[in-house]
Amino acid sequence: VVTGDILLADRCLKKGATVISPNGKPFTGASIGSAIATRAIMADLRAGGDVVGGPAPFVKADRSRFLQALDEALVRLGA
After folding, report:
1. Plot region of 30 (φ>0 → left; ψ -120 to 50 → alpha; else → beta)
2. Which end of the chain has fewer CB atoms surrounding its CB within 10 Å, N or C?
């Protein structure tokens, strides 16, 4: 599954799916907890009126990382 939605990534991981973000960073059982916590903190900051920036702009390195992660996931799955 390719998604930037952290809660969707969590649900997919619980179902046994391999999940990577559009910038190529994998979501894993070990990393999803901190991603959810960061999401909650950022939501609280926005709700409190604090101005916070969005994600970093997509760059060539993100594309390369994504293609590498996708290739690794497909090899692991035997496709």
Report:
1. alpha
2. C
